[in-house]
Every structure is written in structure tokens, then in C-alpha cells.
Specification:
mainly alpha, 0% strand
Length: 40
């Protein structure tokens, strides 16, 4: 498996994850935890 294919797969997974979270009622809470922890 080439690195490019691996990166493309990870990008696709992250996009799907964001789409799923955007439809979730707790999306704001989850995103706040993820990005809040990342900023600190």
C-alpha cells in the first residue's frame, strides 16, 4: 500500500467522521472536547 493511498484513506475517514458528528446532537460537545484538548 502506497503512502498516498493511505493518506487518501485517512482523509476520507476523517471527512466521514466529521459528517457523522455534524448530524449528531452531541457534535458540539464532542468537537469542543477534541479541539479544546488539542488547543491546550
Amino acid at each position: 500500500m502506497s503512502p498516498f493511498t493511505l493518506l487518501l484513506g485517512l482523509a476520507a475517514l476523517s471527512v466521514l467522521l466529521v459528517l457523522l458528528l455534524s448530524f449528531s446532537p452531541r457534535a458540539d460537545d464532542i468537537l469542543e472536547r477534541l479541539f479544546g484538548a488539542r488547543k491546550k
